[in-house]
């Protein structure tokens, strides 16, 4: 299983992405003061969105995490498939007449 938190897919998506991120109670744990999470998340995301968007502008105007995770997924599927095929080829070879047993 692969897991990632994602990222903005455009410069316009930076502030909403940050807002959703900071609304997560695991990111800003406030316990009994949870009602303050939304205004705090809104303040942080609005202030951070401009410099963060500038960073994303430097690396292609979007987060590369989706593309990188997909590339990793494809390579993982290839590696597991090759391992699976090699394992079962050996098993079948052992079952063939004149093949090794074990």
Write the layout of secondary structure elements.
Blueprint: H1 14-22, H2 37-58, H3 65-95
Structure description:
This protein is mainly alpha-helical and 102 residues long. It has 2 domains: 7-63, no CATH class; 64-102, no CATH class. 61% of the residues lie in helices and 0% in strands. The chain is built from 3 helices and no strands. The two termini are 32 Å apart. The model has no long low-confidence stretch (mean pLDDT 91).
Q: What is the string of helix and strand elements?
A: HHH
SS-derived structural category: mainly alpha
Give start-end ranges of low-pLDDT stretches: none
Structural domain tally: 2
Instruction: Enumerate how many helices there are, as a single number.
Output: 3
Top keywords for this entry?
102 residues, mainly alpha, 3 helices
In short:
The chain has 102 residues and is mainly α.
């Amino acid at each position: 299983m692969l897991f990632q938190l994602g990222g903005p897919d455009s410069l316009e998506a930076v502030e909403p992405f940050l807002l959703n991120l900071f609304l997560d109670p695991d990111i800003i744990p406030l316990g009994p003061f949870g009602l303050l999470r939304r205004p705090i998340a809104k303040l942080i995301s609005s202030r951070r969105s401009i410099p963060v968007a500038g960073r994303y502008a430097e690396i292609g105007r979007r987060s590369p995490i989706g593309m990188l995770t997909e590339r990793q997924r494809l390579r993982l599927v290839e590696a597991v498939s090759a391992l699976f095929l090699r394992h079962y080829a050996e098993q079948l070879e052992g079952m063939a007449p004149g093949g090794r047993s074990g």
